[in-house]
Design goal:
Elements lengths: L8 H12 L7 E5 L16 H19 L3 H11 L2 E2 L4 E2 L4 E2 L7 E3 L4 E2 L4 E2 L2 E3 L3 E5 L1 E3 L4 E2 L4 E2 L4 E2 L4 E2 L4 E2 L7 E4 L4 E4 L3 H8 L2
Parallel strand pairs: 2-5, 3-6, 4-7, 5-10, 6-11, 7-12, 10-13, 11-14, 12-15, 14-16
Antiparallel strand pairs: 1-9, 8-9, 16-17
Helix pairs in contact: 2-3
Length: 198
């Protein structure tokens, strides 16, 4: 076998197809591949040219919409691309969401994404491909320029602060700060208010 061909590619692509369809329900998919400078078979750009053109067209539409200030358009484009998006979601300008596999993204109700947020849904390493479902639970706030890695779940009511890099799950009701992000308790707004009056 050539070193430029992903091992057991047909089996891997079939499993990945099932993963994208939600069967099995795991959050992470991983498969050995050749070095990603060569066609791995997992990138939408590795398909036949009509499918590759469609991928680039769809990606351009989605990424353009995400840069604009029109929230309704962003939500519509994400849903059209396959993402699950709840009600009362706000997406700021210049957000980047991995256009390769938007069907792996779930944004529940009352979520806010700050300016310049980046959400990754897949990654290539030197010898393997990974993709992961990203779940932003109800009431999540993602601060400006924060990065969310593939396969990460941000729990209900959690906050990822500005510039944080969340490569692991953030439990409900906690805040993720720093790079790499560590979680800390959320400050109670009543406590902050009483401290400011003392």
């Amino acid at each position: 076998m050539s070193q430029h061909i992903s091992p057991n590619l047909d089996q891997g692509l079939e499993r990945f197809k099932q993963f994208l369809a939600g069967k099995p329900p795991e959050r992470l998919f991983s498969w050995p591949t050749c070095h990603p400078v060569y066609p791995t078979g997992f990138c939408p750009c590795d398909q036949a040219w009509p499918a590759t053109l469609w991928f680039y067209f769809r990606s351009t539409l989605l990424l353009t919409a995400l840069k604009l200030p029109f929230n309704t358009l962003k939500i519509a484009m994400l849903r059209w691309s396959g993402a699950q998006v709840g009600r009362d979601v706000f997406i700021s300008t210049d957000v980047w969401i991995d256009p390769s596999f938007p069907e792996l993204l779930t944004i529940e109700d009352e979520v806010m994404l700050g300016v310049g947020v980046r959400i990754f849904l897949h990654a290539f390493d030197r010898d393997h491909f990974e993709a992961g479902r990203v779940l932003l639970r109800k009431g999540v706030i993602i601060g400006g320029f924060a990065i969310i890695g593939h396969g990460v779940e941000i729990g209900e009511g959690a906050v990822v602060t500005a510039g944080a890099v969340a490569g692991r799950d953030v439990p409900a009701g906690r805040a993720a700060i720093g790079n790499p992000a560590r979680t800390v308790p959320l400050r109670n707004p009543q406590t902050v208010e009483s401290e400011s009056h003392e």
